[in-house]
Amino acid sequence: MLSQVYRSGFQAFRQRLLPWVQSTALSRSHRVQPSAIRHVRSWSNIPFITVPLSRTHGKSFAHRSELKHAKRIVVKLGSAVVTRGDECGLALGRLASIVEQVSVLQNQGREMMLVTSGAVAFGKQRLRHEILLSQSVRQALHSGQNQLKEMAIPVLEARACAAAGQSGLMALYEAMFTQYSICAAQILVTNLDFHDEQKRRNLNGTLHELLRMNIVPIVNTNDAVVPPAEPNSDLQGVISVKDNDSLAARLAVEMKTDLLIVLSDVEGLFDSPPGSDDAKLIDIFYPGDQQSVTFGTKSRVGMGGMEAKVKAALWALQGGTSVVIANGTHPKVSGHVITDIVEGKKVGTFFSEVKPAGPTVEQQGEMARAGGRMLATLEPEQRAEIIHHLADLLTDQRDEILLANKKDLEEAEGRLAAPLLKRLSLSTSKLNSLAIGLRQIAASSQDSVGRVLRRTRIAKNLELEQVTVPIGVLLVIFESRPDCLPQVAALAIASGNGLLLKGGKEATHSNRILHLLAQEALSIHGVKEAIQLVNTREEVEDLCRLDKMIDLIIPRGSSQLVRDIQKAAKGIPVMGHSEGICHMYVDSEASVDKATRLVRDSKCEYPAACNALETLLIHRDLLRTPLFDQIIDMLRVEQVKIHAGPKFASYLTFSPSEVKSLRTEYGDLELCIEVVDSVQEAIDHIHKYGSSHTDVIVTENEKTAEFFLQHVDSACVFWNASTRFSDGYRFGLGAEVGISTSRIHARGPVGLEGLLTTKWLLRGQDHVVSDFSEHGSLKYLHENLPVPQRNTN
After folding, report:
1. Does pTM surpass 0.90?
2. CDD domains, from UniProt (predicted)?
3. Do 691 and 579 meet the contact criterion of CB atoms below 8 Å apart?
4. How many Å apart are CA 612 and CA 667, to the nearest integer?
5. Residue 692 — left, alpha, or beta (φ > 0 → left; ψ -120 to 50 → alpha)?
6. Domains located in the chain, CATH noted
7. What is the mean pLDDT of the chain?
8. Strand locations in 602-646, DSSP E?
């Protein structure tokens, strides 16, 4: 009777579960769309995608970026990942997400295997339910009433729980994988299956046959019969299967897998127990690094702790399998942790046998922080001396710089578009201009750090100062612009900031020599480490996650790069602009000659620049006038392709191609022309379609010009001047780290001042707040004190 009650309850549970699994699976965004299928083959009417993935097993991957080539993958799910927080029952949401990710990878043509815990937890839930039903019936029979007393549940033996839970766990996996047209098969093993040669060959053959048929093997230790683990029972050169960590490692090596992913309830391997004050996540772990790690206690559930995981990972690594240990329980990352790892993203701890030649990016961040703090303590004259020395090196080492740049240009030929090649190119005149700009920065840096902005006498002998200080560590990411490196380096030196530089690979040779020159200049005052060039294979997205090392990110490059960085940055402010959609409004009272010169310079002088003109707004009264004809003739001579805005197209019988979007940054000899009826309509158009970068009015009417200047809400607004003046060097800032369109901290071309923040200094003599209470002896004065005059020489 009781078994029937339980069976009906369990069937009802499964009926409730299946629709949830279906809706969860189908709602996920990782489903492979039909358009992504290259070609389909099938086995037993189960379609799946085949992707060209091939790799000769032997050596593990050296870098994370190579993990995308992994063909055969084992995913180990720890007990903490599979079970709920109460250790009784399964975490169904996490399991559904994991099954989905495994299915996506399987449908890409990879061979996926699961090593899973959870049978004990599932069985515990099942047996508790059975015991409660049994006790409730006995109590009802003996007491003769329906009231039930509190029932104590006895301690359940793990092997019995495993025996009761295996079938239910496998039924759950089958239900979930079915939603992705994937078949799963269960394999239960013990240590003997690996030590007995015949059993080991049988296991190997079974697994290979399942993989050949596109079936996902789900492997677990047979906890219903397995004996307790014996300490130090490993055979010579062979890891003993004591828990699912060692099982996963043994299985990975036995099956010659490319990647083993171990999911636990911590982010990865830390150098000390997670949660301790100084604990740091280890990004890459190398054999022999065990001495630098202090292991803590094991997780709340499961057989092994982190020490067991590391031992198993190193054994698998020695056998030619790459390993990543990561968190499979965090709600914000568990939905994509497996696919992120396979894509090479910086998730968890990656085990590698290949140590990089230089420091890791984390170590570079620490060096930049320490070097920046030393740089900030130098005298202003010493920082200026470093910058002057760097300016001299740019001209003295001109030939070496241009030779390195020539290598970059030769390698980029045919791969980069003409505008990008122009940005990549260095010349003698560019280097001379850079040197002049650096000397301007040196001159303006004399009182930048430590300048007093405000002084207040709070009370007698209690004085407050607000002073300028460096922001901390800057990360500047730039594309195809090697001349950006010395500019940004000089601004970081002048402002006392540590600096991490990440340049595009197309400028590798140029960036390398320019960075060496920057460090040579820094060496004259012993702060060489303050500026670091990231040469590792770090992805930009991974760099943007280093929120404990980086205080500000400044992207220099395409609008797509800026948007990607703004999206990827987690907890780190980004200063910059994603688009440079600059407008010029030619008013009805504009000068013919001025308008033509300004349009030509703004559009044609350097069309790839972010401050180049992209949209020309013409007052309606100027159509079919000499001014309009002269502008059009000039654009035709300069070979500028014209796109007509909707209103402009309506005035023409035969118009140019109508613009697809009025919010377009062309970055080339292309220009949108639109017609407006008034200065107010021009302002409204700019606010609707512009990017708050740089906008210009051309007019001889001062009142109209001032109206435009006051009402256009952009970082730079000009009257009768080219958009190309929106530049730190042309503004007299010496150089710029970029142009910001944000509304806090810094806006427009960002020079030295934009790389500083402030702190408050309070000097007192045994002052306490209670002295200023209603019955205290002191009163607040809040007197403004004179501020030392700034040195403008």
Report:
1. no
2. AAK_P5CS_ProBA, ALDH_F18-19_ProA-GPR
3. yes
4. 8
5. left
6. 64-136+157-227+238-351 (3.40.1160.10), 361-568 (3.40.605.10), 583-736 (3.40.309.10)
7. 84
8. 613-619, 641-644
